[in-house]
Amino acid sequence: MAQPDPTRAESKTVKTTCPYCGVGCGVLATLTDTPTGPQVTVKGDPDHPANKGRLCSKGSALAETLSLDGRLLHPTISGAQASWESALSQVASRFKQTIEAHGPDSVAFYVSGQLLTEDYYVANKLMKGFIGSANIDTNSRLCMASSVAGHKRAFGTDTVPGQYEDLEQADLIVLVGSNLAWCHPVLYQRIAAAKSARPAMKIINIDPRRTASSDLADLHLALTPGSDVALFNHLLTTIHEMGAVDSAFVAQHVDGFDAALSAASSGEVQATGLSANELAEFTRAWIGTEKVVTIYSQGVNQSTSGSDKVNAILNCHLATGRIGRPGMGPFSVTGQPNAMGGREVGGLANMMACHLDLENAGHRATVRDFWQAPTLPEAAGLKAVDMFRAVGDGRIKALWVMCTNPVVSMPEADRVKAAIANCDFVVVSDMYGDTDTAKLADIVLPATGWGEKTGTVTNSERCISRQRPFLPAPGTARHDWDVLAEVGRRMGWQAEFAYESPAEILREYATLSGLAAQHGKDFDISALSDLTEVEYDALPPQHWPLTKERRGGRFFADGRFFTPSGRANMLPLHHRAPAKPADATHPFILNTGRIRDQWHTMSRSGLAPRLNQHMAEPYLEIHPTDATTLGLQAADLAEVSSAHGRAILRVLLSDKVKPGAVFAPMHWTSQLSSAGRIDAVVAAEVDPVSGQPESKATPVAITKLPARWYGYAVSRQHPKPKAEYWALARLGDGWQMEFADRHTPEDWRAYAEQLLCTDGCNLQTTEDPAKGLFRLAAHRDGLLEAALFIAPNPVALARSHVNTLLGTEAPAALAGRAGADQPDPGATICACFDVGINTIISAIQQQNLMSVDAIGAALNAGTNCGSCRPELAALLSAAMPRQAAE
Ligand SMILES: Nc1nc2c(c(=O)[nH]1)N[C@H]1C(S)=C(S)[C@@H](COP(=O)(O)OP(=O)(O)OC[C@H]3O[C@@H](n4cnc5c(=O)[nH]c(N)nc54)[C@H](O)[C@@H]3O)O[C@H]1N2
Ligand SMILES: Nc1nc2c(c(=O)[nH]1)N[C@H]1C(S)=C(S)[C@@H](COP(=O)(O)OP(=O)(O)OC[C@H]3O[C@@H](n4cnc5c(=O)[nH]c(N)nc54)[C@H](O)[C@@H]3O)O[C@H]1N2
Ligand code: SF4
Ligand SMILES: [Mo]
């Protein structure tokens, strides 16, 4: 037998699932013991059906987010370290006392699509089954609620009919309100690969804004924000006019066709703002292509007509019978890794476990008997926006927030912040104790995170995958299911919450799903109800349904739906504009969303230095014409305000947005910026059916922030920012910081010393007061500890060059030269190989590069995860005409 080689490091590889988006990619995480400590590397799992080995930039950088820096290691009570014993006994007793004094509806849980299914199941069982209130809602309310409502209205259940293969088999893919290239990058890559193998495949992108996803599209329809119902109603009437209705399917399997068609025919298509040619091209392609998949996401869901938008899309697929067959169907892509799992366990305030309905007495009886629950609420609980209103006005007196950061991600976020701050008793479970929400809690409970947790998640195509641990829990951090179960026991339900493992929870849940199926529901995973611990550990990715008779596959091709009649519903729908139009005081419409390399409120992705280089500041995308009218130039700072709050953002001039529309990312927090929390500005208008807020259309006013000076700094220590505008981003060995203010400090040197904590450093400064210039280099033991550059205009500087000098023997003369003589690689486009935009543009020009692969060969850019390939393609096409002309 071979002896272990003592010179070789021990390593083990674990198959797990990416904790970010709803694509649900399989990840191989390898843990190696090295002399300097354990090291983790990740790569895509070639055997996982979602990604077949691919990963995007965020997935590829997962190992960089595992540092314990900033992790919460112990519970805290009022900010002081506490034992689990005292924290949990307070949580249980405060919730019990509040319920005794004010009834079950005086308490609430606000949870997350990033919980694992097992965590989610226990949270839902505790609140709905035992506390006896339906006041449990989830951040999926901000995300998937309109899709859930649309599916239920049309199909009788919240069912995604298709699977990812359909995207490769389709001849036409329509992306509606989905920036797939940045938000579901591996699905985008799968589509891009299919299109390149089969160029006849067409892609249409429907988004008021041009995005990275538009680059692959044959047609981009920049419709008026919020006008999707008008567009799909027009499609439905054209389907009818062209004789493309599948009359047999409709006659046998669909109700409501005539009413839907008549409502659609009321001629509202001008609301889309699209030209007759654009409309004709769209309807011709959609109607003329049988294999069409309509993918939709937050441009559809996050709207006061979100549910109607979903049904307008479903109407067209039902009318043509294009549903549930290979290469065709509507496809709602989920955002979070377990958004789908949360919908399945009944995490929303208006749902019960296993797609059963709270309002249905028979369904309630089944669940009550199964759980041996004392009572079950008979009506929906408060949905997220209303829940925080109830926290604000004192109806809810005890709140447990788990795995989500509502002070950043809820609309009217300042109001939510005040509500949480003033609530009698707030518990937050998070991996980090200093998120904007955790900071306001009475008790913060340390949760295990990705790499430490164990359980299951369900992705956008109903595939259940395991997240498996490969790292120990840091400090005393505990799994969310374990903490919830212990609180359940401490509240008096010992037997009902006596779980010892996630496998045990999944078994119980799978058994309940078998009972739900007897009520004619779709979600049936009863084949998992007797999994052993060993089988649970080995569970391969599998699509539900999972029963003795059936494993995975599509729904609805057979025309059997889950409504009482077994027939699908088409709905009569009318266009409604967003709740609040622009007016004289708030003349611009603010659209918000995601950037490629950050995940939500950045608590994890913000830890990976390379992910911070794509876009390092909160910004406002604004059309150059509007900018000129407002006196704004590139890199100025803009103050964006609504009736609810304000933000300060860096101006990014772009003709990707139309005049009158602006776009800002949702990611920045108060930890990382002075005023980048954009949800402070976003109005909390909700869809009347789903309760989902309209995060994409708030009227705002924009003015220039009249800064007197602008600054850029790098520092090995966490800077202590004091300026009207600042934004921090983590580097490999320190921090970078942008800042600006309208008041000039009296003494720049004193200001810099305080900002950058340069005690004991050797300081070198240069100053030109007449020109408003100041520069400082701080060395400690001969190594650059910090550098600062102040100018009267946005600082022009080779930032990535300066960043690399941190911690080196950079010359003290840096303070004079500012590295401005170095070529600036510009914003990072390829995060894997750290290649900047300027480097790419100059290589395209100088080496006459003609393809994305040629850029890869020259610079490596785009050759690893591929997330930047759409941007590389866009840079190429921008350069091509000029090359051709030269
Ligand atoms: N990089 C990254 N990826 C992520 C996430 C992340 O934080 N970062 N989060 C994940 C989550 S939870 C989610 S929910 C998904 C979201 O994924 P997406 O929905 O693709 O992302 P968004 O950027 O929120 O919005 C999509 C697009 O909707 C457009 N839009 C705005 N208004 C309208 C309209 O009225 N009609 C139409 N047709 N379009 C409109 C916007 O311009 C935007 O380009 O991303 C997931 N993936
Ligand atoms: N303006 C605007 N606002 C939006 C959106 C938008 O498009 N525009 N999109 C909305 C959408 S779709 C979504 S999904 C939300 C997302 O918004 P949030 O859910 O608020 O964002 P995250 O940063 O993902 O928050 C997750 C938190 O859980 C912590 N965490 C991570 N893993 C664990 C764990 O295992 N256990 C526990 N207990 N904690 C953990 C993280 O540190 C982090 O603090 O934002 C919504 N808000
Ligand atoms: S596409 Fe990227 S973020 Fe989404 S699951 Fe895959 S690797 Fe993770
Ligand atoms: Mo989401």
TrEMBL record:
The answer to whether the entry has keyword 4Fe-4S is yes
Give one GO biological process term.
Answer: nitrate assimilation
Using the record's annotation, list all stretches that form the 4Fe-4S Mo/W bis-MGD-type domain: 11-70
Annotated SUPFAM superfamilies: ADC-like (SSF50692), Formate dehydrogenase/DMSO reductase, domains 1-3 (SSF53706)
InterPro entries per record: Asp_de-COase-like_dom_sf, BFD-like_2Fe2S-bd_dom, BFD-like_2Fe2S-bd_dom_sf, CT_Nitrate-R-NapA-like, MoPterin_dinucl-bd_dom, Mopterin_OxRdtase, Mopterin_OxRdtase_4Fe-4S_dom, MopterinOxRdtase_cofactor_BS
| Pfam families the UniProt entry points to | Fer2_BFD (PF04324), Molybdop_Fe4S4 (PF04879), Molybdopterin (PF00384), Molydop_binding (PF01568)
Q: Which cofactor does it need?
A: Mo-bis(molybdopterin guanine dinucleotide); [4Fe-4S] cluster
Q: What is this protein called?
A: Nitrate reductase
**UniProt source species:** Thalassovita autumnalis
Gene name in the database record: nasA
